[in-house]
Amino acid sequence: MDKKKFTEKTSWFWKWFLNNQVVVSLIVVLLLLLILLVFTKVSYLFEPVGQFFAIVGLPMVLAGILFYLMNPVVNHLEKRGVKRQYGIILLFIVVLALLIWGIVVIVPEIRQQIQSLVNSFPGYIDTIEGKADQIFKDPSFRPVQEYIENSAQRILETITNMTQDLSRVTLQGLGSVVSVVTNIVIALFTAPIILFFLLKDGKRLGPYLVSFLPNRMRRPSYRVLREMNQQLASYIRGQLTVAFAVAVMFMLGFSIVGLNYGILLGVLAGFLNLIPYLGSFLAMIPVVFIAIVTGPVMLLKVIIVFAIEQMIEGRIVSPLVLGSQLEIHPVTIMFVLLTAGKIFGLAGIILGIPFYAVAKVIASHVFDWYKSVSNLYNEEEVEEETVDT
Fold first, then answer.
1. H-type alpha helices, 142-277
2. pTM (2 decimals)?
3. Which tens digits make up the pLDDT trace of 126-179?
4. Residue 334 neighbours by CB under 8 Å, 6+ apart
5. How far apart are CA 364 and CA 247, in angstroms?
6. Pfam families of this UniProt entry (predicted)?
7. Which of 302, 283, 277 is nearest to 292 (CA)?
8. d(CA 202, CA 81)
9. Counting Cβ atoms within 10 Å, is residue 291 exposed (0-12), middle (13-18) or buried (19+)?
């Protein structure tokens, strides 16, 4: 009798708890949250790890970006019969020659245009203020003139307070500035070394990492690593290629229409184009500002250049270079940019999309594994129910 009651209780507990997939899933989630809570309580133990990655993070990121750009060239040279080490050395020599050429030819021109822009900026501000006064003195603007003046006064007070705070923080942050400069110098010296070994032994990295896993997990894990690598490679190569094309198109367009500081503004547009969907519009803010000061004809020319660039980039360059390899919806990209920018700042805006692409690959494989072991997504049962109804 006791044995029968025990069996009934065990069966009931097994049915509603141990054998209930929803309950088991909730328990797993609860355990994960408890693990995260414990990590937050002992986070001080991981501060040395964080400091280590703060030091090596920048050179590793730079080396990784250059690896995805240079690895196809090294592979092509290797297929042509050039030994991999010699191909890497040859490519390093070519890149170094291009850097020297850029420093000798382009950098002085950009520096000259920056100095000219800084010297001319007060005159541009006076011109904008004069045109704004002419517009606001018009009788049709009198109803909103008081509101605009109050808003301008509040903005001026805010800028004054920010300037005072900045002057206070600047003296306090000299140590952090020195630290940032030191990290950049270390990255410039160590990134080429990391890049050389990545190009030389990059093919062995994936098999080496999965060799630490159990045998049955090696093949699916290596498949995940390969897809992550493909996503990062396609995004980095495509994004940098499009940014370079945008910079060239803007520099040519601004030079043709005769806009001042065309090379500087074109290079700026190329860098800002690394921010998806927003970069080109952000780059047009200083361009429109300078065009307004120059005159309405120049403003019209700049708008035409921008329209032509957007048409070429959207219809030709981006589809050919990027295509639909990431398969990320534009709305999702906007949410990722806003969230990553809010949490991590500029680095989050630039690196948010590739990290999301990697996380998407991992999440999709984890979900496929969960579907296969949970039996909660049995399509045969759904088809049978559909046929019965």
1. 142-172, 174-210, 215-257, 262-272
2. 0.69
3. 776 676 666 666 666 566 556 656 665 666 566 566 555 544 544 444 455 556
4. 277
5. 36
6. AI-2E_transport
7. 302
8. 19
9. buried
